[in-house]
Amino acid sequence: MVFTQLYIVYMGEKHHEDPEVVTSLHHDTLASILGSKEEALGSIIYSYKHGFSGFAAMLTDSQAKKLAGMTGVLSVRLSRTLQLSTTRSWDFLGLSYNNPPSQLLHKARLGDGVIIGVVDSGIWPESKSFDDSGYGPVPARWKGTCKTGKEFNASHCNRKIIGARCHGTHVASTAAGSYVRNVSVGGMAVGWARGGAPKGTASYASVLAAIDDAIHDGAVLKGITVVYSAGNDGPFPQTVENTSPWVITVAASTMDRSFPTAITLGDNVTLVGQATYLGNANLSGFTGITYGDSCDNETLKGTEYRRTVVLCNPGLRASRDQISFAAQNVRKAGGLGLIFPQYTTNILPQPTISRSSWWTGLLFQQVAEYLQTFRDSAKVKLSPTRTVEGKGILAPRVAAFSSRGPNKVFPGILKPDIAAPGVSILAAVRDSYGFMDGTSMATPHVSGIVALLKSLYPTWSPAAIKIGHSDDRWRADSGGGHTRKLADPFDYGSGHINPEKAADPGLIYDINPKDFNEFKCSLGSLLVCETPQLPVYDLNLPSISIPDLKTKVTVSRTVTNVGPADSTYVAIVEPPPGVQMEVRPSKLVFDERTKTQKFTVTLTSVRMIQGVYTFGSLTWKDDTHTVRIPIAVRNVIKDFYADVA
């Protein structure tokens, strides 16, 4: 039997406006390798004919190699599986519907008429978050379709879900969900579940089919803002994904909500950790507690764990999977619940493991010492989880799992771009509601705000929308996780998202999409981009990243005034340690005729060190606006040396 795999064939820009002509070219190209049109039709899975030219097909390795050598084929890459990267979060961001009402939310008419395209793993149209009651007609400019599929028919589309292709619900409801009252998980996190642009409309596509409608460069050229998750491989450096300069790459942060859960030992000592414990009739009073070590299958074979709470110790850096396996093993062994130690990773067990709690190492040690002292007579009582919100909680903080920079593909482009809430986000899951964590939960928060901005400023480019989001108050907060360091721009980009500030940024850093042509990317960050001939730090981005400063580098930027016509901005310089920084001119004056101003930033190394990134910033300030961009500089003495820090 011949072994085939799914390959993506990229043929660059389409040269015909007629989709049928483009598709015919794909069939002919594939037939020249497979031997017949019939074989080509049987092999091809998708034909990409709108945003660019390309196709996906089942091929052998040798067939893929032959295709890669054909004229007109720019790249052939093996397809890969992509991991899928609410109530309180929107109020935390200042987009409150009532108390007090958000100016941006109402000025933008709740995002009415804006179309949001979401790439997710599926959608549950029956969810109340997609109720179209009170919505007007579908925008006349909509040219999409409601494609039927397994358990999804045309009637599932409405004035909220205006289209679907290969039909995610949690992500979509966070970006554009309708208002739903009294949403909670077992009474936790009670509130209104809604999206950032609750009157925005959503279209769904599988990842491959969505490439054709929202390809990185094609989408940006058409004025569509593309928002991607940074990935969930933190807190390790150089793990950030989706690093192309034309997209907004979003890190995950916490918000001012926690879920304290009290555990009372048999000697009446009460400790508090975090959990999603909803209560259990079998645990309403004191019950036995046993020690299960790593809580693997072998350890929990005995009968002593039945109807007890098991103290597990899979390690302070245990992954979500390890914790899930421990919970499953405890359940198989007949246990009623588990307690385990863990560094603060911002990941709570899901409700399917609702009888579990996590605790810091110190509290775990107290439980372990109690268990060792009382052994067979040791008992414990778990109290149902409470929901606590407000100023008593340090937030925002970077989620430990959020992927970090520097950008390993283009070190001269600072990534991620921004951070948004992505921890314990409550939104639609199938026909109910549940918590999820991840940068894929942070991304729809940014998407929802982008929808509001597009409604408010329909002519703004994707680059213009990119600048105004950040809030530099972030810098005082911890990076989270077991790294125990202050957060820096490789954790959060330009800062934490600030919707009201985004609506009135003062200055923007705009870019002509054609400037991105230097990158010559094959399917954007899904495949490979060539290194541009010009230094990438010369792009007019709202950040500066110099990965190889030996002596001196001068970069230029251009800002456009979108605030009051007569404005004067003064530069506030915060140079990275070990770097001298000069801005010319140091004052920018705008009037009715002068809408844009160009300036240069000269960075000079004053400390001879090898391979250490340091951080600073440049802020332009007038009477009412503060426009700050982050600066990352890596001093080097010799090229091609591994980092020493």
Task: Please give a handful of descriptors for the protein shown.
five-stranded mixed beta sheet, alpha+beta, signal, protease, Peptidase_S8_His-AS, seven-stranded mixed barrel
Give the topology, please.
Layout: E1 5-10, H1 19-34, H2 37-43, E2 44-48, E3 54-59, H3 61-68, E4 75-78, H4 88-92, H5 103-107, E5 115-119, E6 161-164, H6 170-176, E7 180-185, E8 188-193, E9 201-205, H7 207-214, H8 216-221, E10 227-229, E11 248-253, E12 257-258, E13 260-265, E14 270-275, E15 287-293, E16 309-312, H9 320-332, E17 337-341, E18 356-359, H10 361-374, E19 379-382, E20 388-389, E21 418-421, E22 425-429, E23 432-436, H11 439-456, H12 462-467, E24 470-471, H13 489-492, E25 496-497, H14 499-503, E26 507-508, E27 544-549, E28 552-561, E29 567-574, E30 579-584, E31 587-590, E32 596-605, E33 612-621, E34 626-635
Parallel strand pairs: 5-9, 6-9, 10-11, 11-21, 15-16, 16-17, 17-18, 27-34
Antiparallel strand pairs: 1-3, 1-4, 2-3, 7-8, 12-20, 13-14, 13-19, 14-18, 15-19, 22-23, 24-25, 26-28, 28-32, 29-31, 29-33, 30-32, 33-34
InterPro entries: Peptidase_S8/S53_dom (IPR000209), Peptidase_S8/S53_dom_sf (IPR036852), Peptidase_S8_His-AS (IPR022398), Peptidase_S8_Ser-AS (IPR023828), Peptidase_S8_subtilisin-rel (IPR015500), S8pro/Inhibitor_I9 (IPR010259), S8pro/Inhibitor_I9_sf (IPR037045), SBT (IPR045051)
Keywords: Hydrolase, Protease, Serine protease, Signal
Domain Inhibitor I9: 7-84
